[in-house]
Write a structure and sequence with these properties.
The protein has 281 residues and is of the alpha+beta class. The protein folds into three domains: 6-120, Sufe protein. Chain: A (Alpha-Beta Complex); 127-197, BFD-like [2Fe-2S]-binding domain (Arc Repressor Mutant, subunit A, Orthogonal Bundle), CATH 1.10.10; 206-280, Fe-S cluster assembly (FSCA) (GMP Synthetase, Chain A, domain 3, 2-Layer Sandwich), CATH 3.30.300.130. It is 47% helix and 19% strand. It is built from eleven helices and eight strands. It has helices at 6-13, 61-74, 79-83, 87-93, 102-120, 142-152, 157-164, 174-192, 194-197, 206-226, 256-271, and strands at residues 26-32, 37-46, 49-58, 133-135, 140-141, 230-238, 241-248, 277-280. The strands form three sheets. It has a three-stranded antiparallel beta sheet. A three-stranded mixed beta sheet has the order 6-7-8, covered by helices on one side. Strand 6 (230-238) and strand 7 form a beta hairpin. The protein is globular, with a radius of gyration of 20 Å. 33% of the residues are buried.
Amino acid sequence: MWDYTDKVKILYTKPKNVGVIEDANAVGEVGSIVCGDALTLYLKIEDGIIKDAKFQTFGCGSAIASSSALTEMIIGKTVEEAEKITNRDIVEYLGGLPEQKMHCSVMGREALDKALANWRGEEIEEEAHEGEIVCQCFGVTDALIRKVIRENNLKSVEDITNYTKAGGACGSCIHKLEDILQEELKLQQSCADNPETGEKKKPLTNIRRMQLVNETIVDVIRPILQKDGGDIELLDVDGKKVYVALRGTCSQCVASMVTLKNLVEAKLREFVEDDIEVIEK
């Protein structure tokens, strides 16, 4: 039996913002009933601000809770602020999701992407027609699999299944998933080895840098600090300068500067950029 947080249980049994916005000027649809999960996200955007958000979903309790959480997170936000929200942010808002249900948060993030593209008048490319379908059972393409691997730093085929459902039914695509994963891991290693190859690494955009900084703090640095009663809060990202505040036992530690340089800055330079500077506020 999966362990759900109280927040997930509340938003599943008493979801917020369920329904249709009749005069919505942004709509995003992902998934399909045939595949077991489907979500339609409706937004009302005025002067670049999301004034209202509602959803309709066909899926499990985690899908309902994730969709409800997403709408709560984006109402009142500017479009630019909403674009920075990742599936990891949705999971954190819920207090966590079982690994086997992470695909629900990915579905919400994809629906938001499509809704904002719809609002801008951009042509929306359906995942089912973008790239080669790898998982016939759930209609998952190689393009989506590669995107999720990169954005969530996935390291196993089981991770891919948890985040996309690919390979979760008949299993006939497992070997293809293994091939894609190995290609992506080699690509990541190649990027890390760029100085030896003489190739120039493509610079990060500000939005991507902020996403990677936040993911590294949440997934890598914070768990290490929390083991000793400490914590860290990300305050701001200004170019390659990352402003943080140490919390818990770390805030009173005489070796806080060592923690900042040897742990926080070192991990950010490992996972984000090698010239990141960490500054405590």
